[in-house]
From TrEMBL:
It comes from Roseovarius gaetbuli. GO terms for molecular function: transmembrane transporter activity. This is TRAP transporter large permease protein. It is a multi-pass membrane protein. It comes from the Bacteria. It is found in: Cell inner membrane. Part of the tripartite ATP-independent periplasmic (TRAP) transport system. Pfam families: DctM. PANTHER family: C4-DICARBOXYLATE TRAP TRANSPORTER LARGE PERMEASE PROTEIN DCTM, SIALIC ACID TRAP TRANSPORTER PERMEASE PROTEIN SIAT-RELATED.
Amino acid sequence: MITYVSVGLLALLSLSIPVGIVLFLLGFGIDVFFSPFPLIKGLGQMVWSSSNSATLIAIPFFVLLGEILVRSGVAARTYEALDRWVSWLPGGLVHANVATSTMFSAISGSSVATAATVATVAMPQAERLGYDPKLFSGAIAAGGTLGIMIPPSINLIVYGFLTQSSIPQLFLAGLLPGILLAVGFIVITVIICLIRPDLGGERRVFPLSQMLGALVHLLPIIFLFTMIIGTIYKGWATPTEAAAVGVAVAFVIAGFASGISFKMISDSLLGTIKVTSMIMLVVMGASFLNFTLSSAGLGRELKDFLEGLGLSPLAFILVVVMIYVVLGFFIETLSLMVVTIPIIVPLVVAQGYDPIWFGILMIVLIEMALITPPVGLNLYVVQGARKSGKMSDVMIGSIPFVCVMLIMAAALIAFPQLALYLPSALN
């Protein structure tokens, strides 16, 4: 059955069938070939129960929040402000890509939205200033992955929903690793550009007056992040309620920034509908697939297989890491999470690991999948924003940042408190 699911998934994805539909088709196949029961009768209940959750309402709110800030020009001004503060480092404007991705991640919750926003704003600058396209575009693709680590994160919301974990604790747990990843991206860029200065472009130093004046454009993002995360941890609002308030504040910011037009609102709502529909189709399809897999006994087979290996807890988690690294090459990230969480997480918890910690480790591995071919979504987003050049440029440019993610995964395994310190301190 494992072979059927793996081969079937790859074959259907190779036909460019939408991921959500692929998951439903695999579920139907398991029903027909592997189950003595008519599992299709449970389809309606599975679709309803997987989507009937107040927690998931936060997803369209966070997507809409990001859409509003992008289309109102707030994101572009944030990029220009950070350019004045970090372009003196070896690598120049490449660091503005990472810094802007970090700040936008703090209010977006989506890696794709973060990568698309920064790529749209940054790519014209790269061409004008003569930056190496590989490193420049790779930094944008990698920086965009921070959108699912730094809170508020849509993927962490989905993880919390599927594992019944505390979403506020997951948000806290992702904050420090997210910041460390951003710092790691900057450090690896500095090292590369010290060795090969021609890759980094011109280092620019701005007058102090311009640097200080640019800070005003960072205030909207800082205020939004503080308000969303602060209200959650003060207990004033749930993540869903905080997201709704964040959308309202984003409209106010957009009004002061450039005015609110009918086109801006309609484009933001349309973008939100497209992204949310994709996410929910994947969630519902994966829920049905998980239902058929568990009914047909795959979960028991996998559990027996892993337990039969007789591994120590450390060896077990290393095997799980390898599974996610390999699957990440071929499976879209949200689908990978939703399909594997019901099977893998109980086994990990049975080994004595904290589910909050494992959620952050999983997100690091999912981030890696976003920038590794052949289905690394951020690679295609950045290449689409470039409108020229070879796809291989973005792939090659992402390699140093994949190495940073591997180091972070190793650090989380060696030092679990990197993820657990803030949640435990809050408690």
